[in-house]
Amino acid sequence: MSNQASSAPVSESQFLVAGPGSGKTTVMVLKILKFIYVDDVHPSSILATTFTRKAASELRSRISHGEMK
After folding, report:
1. For 8, 29, 37, 49, which has the most beta carbons within 10 A of its beta carbon?
2. Each residue of 13-60: pLDDT tens digit?
3. The pTM is what?
4. Helix, strand or coil for residue 45?
5. In angstroms, rounded to a whole number, what is the distance separating the alpha carbons of residues 57 and 41?
6. What does the alpha-carbon distance between residue 38 and residue 28 come to, in Å, rounded to a whole number?
7. Pair 50, 63: CB distance under 8 Å
């Protein structure tokens, strides 16, 4: 999953579906950080959604700290 999603073009929307512990959050963080720091996409033009507040909090934390887990 991570190779296809992380290397998809900026102009392409992404929809990640996978089971628990499969690396969805890591892929989303990598993709968002790449958009911001490599592709010069302004953060306000990125929309990322999750199904739970816990997942959203984890995503926000990893992006703001530029972390991979």
Report:
1. 29
2. 777 777 888 888 888 898 899 889 999 999 999 988 888 899 899 999
3. 0.72
4. helix
5. 22
6. 15
7. no
